[in-house]
Sequence to fold (630 residues):
Amino acid sequence: MGRTMSLHPGQMLLGKYKILELLGSGGWGEVYLAEDNLGREVAVKCLRKDLCQDESALSQFLEEASKAASIKHPNVVIIYTCEREGDERYIVMEYGDKGTVAQLISEKGSLPILQAIDLAIGVCRGLSAAHRKGLIHGDVRPSNIVLCTDEESEGEGAVIPKLSDFGFAQRARLTRTSAKTGAPAPLGAWQYVSPERLQEDPVDGRSDLYSLGVSLYEMLTGEPPFPLRGDNAVNEVIRGHLKVKPEPPGNKRRGICELLNETVIRALQKKPERRYPDARAMLKALEEARDAQITWERKLKGLYKQAMAYFEGGKWQEAVESFEKLLKYNAPYEDVPARLEQAKEQVRLAEVYQRALAFVAQKEWQKAKAELEDILRSDPHYRGGEAKTWLDEVKKQIELASLYAEATKEEKAEHWTEAIRLFSRILSIQPGYQDVPARLSRAEERRRIQVLYQEAMRSLNAGEWDEAIGKLDEIVKLDPGYEDAASKLEWAKRQKELEPLYEQAVKYFEQEDWANAIKLLDQVVKKDPGYKEAARKLHKAKQEHPVVEAAKEREEKPMTQSESSFKKNVIFLLGIAISILCPTLLNLVLKLDWDIWEQIVIVVLLLFVFVPLYVYFQGPGTGESGGQAE
Fold:
């Protein structure tokens, strides 16, 4: 069902497009290179006549073309306009002056790795823009990725990849059913179609990501993961898409980093949910893979350069290790295997010496010393005296390490004088050795603090508060957390403040000036309950103070008449009671067996003694009232 007309070079289309040449043709029509009336080269796509006459297909096509035209993105071919002439339909779009990725692969085979990644990144950006518009391309493959000159780049030959044929892709029937029935479809498209499309499952943007993964795979290796080969090519390709796990591209080409391998394989997962969720996620993965590839290539290049330096410098063991790494990393250097064998031949001659240098590098001085002494026993002038020089250095390092360990031990024990001596010794052997300058400085400072603290303690013990405060204050400034210096400083300041108070209080105490003594001692105890004997003296003063006051009060205050009479009566009654009870108690205690008359006689005799005495002592001149009268 081909077109009924063809355009020819020089022919004017629609009065404004001069046809220059035929670029290609396919199931949908033909594409021509033309020049518009502005002198701009454009691509003109002429649709098949049957598509133009199918109203439903034409309506769908125009809708998809309109969506594609709405995508304004550097990595999507610009659709300038849709033209019509009679029943014919034309699409005028941006022209890719550098051909397509398919042509580039055909010319070069596999592309440089970073170039392939850059092209895939550009396509992924275009897909991201299209997917945001709700447009699925459906036929992402190298022949639909056109290359345009990058006018903004300063690099010669720089190109921009651009997705083309939006809207046309959905017309192709690439399913297992169409493969069996022989429905028309571009033969090469089978190599890029997603599994879900083959199975006629719902398709979304992840289908395009699968096709992009296939395209990137081909750019890296020179062929897609499931290429068309043999008589049953299409069926084998379909089986590959649906059932066969693709081999990582790094297995087919040296120099591909692991992250790039993983990125491609994830894009080629059979189930959409195992791929990247959208184009932006895949774009991020590609950008990370690009950075990883740059790092990887730089690493391989550096490793190869280092391997060659080892090789040419006679460092055979290092050369062997480096060349083995290059082989392990699948580095793209053809001479690596041969050079590895040559380096291994030289290892035997330098094995002992290399082992000694490795011990030196690892600072395992005793092992290095043993190896070097072994060498020098066999050849005192090995490598022009180099081994002897190393042995001298190793012995020095052993001595330094020993001194360093001993100094560290003294430092931990805070034996600063000895630590200072050892650190100084180390620096006299090798100035700047490890962290010794800083540790020596710290040890000297700690020694100074230690001396100050000892002097401060002596001053404290001697009660030299000003001297102690000065030294403790200096310690706290140097090291606020040094032992109990801060608390001692506060204590010393308190002692300095309390001492005159206490001395004055003691004077009051000795003078029995209890009120003033209590006042000052109370101040002292509140500030420092344990200060000397302040608490005890305060207690004593408080005991003495009320007794003295009471005595004074008794001396100064005379008794009233009623008080005096009451006291007399109490004494008289007590005397009578004692006189009556005394015989009975004596009879019971001493078991005298007195009868009642004998006890009465004893009571009467006691009363004869008590009453006259009572009268005598309570008479005029002896009582309070009598004294008052006098």
Notes: Strands lie at 12-13, 17-26, 29-36, 41-47, 79-85, 88-94, 145-149, 159-163. Residues 1-5, 171-176, 178-184, 621-630 have pLDDT under 50 and may be disordered. The longest strand covers residues 17-26. Residues 288 and 490 are 62 Å apart (CA to CA).
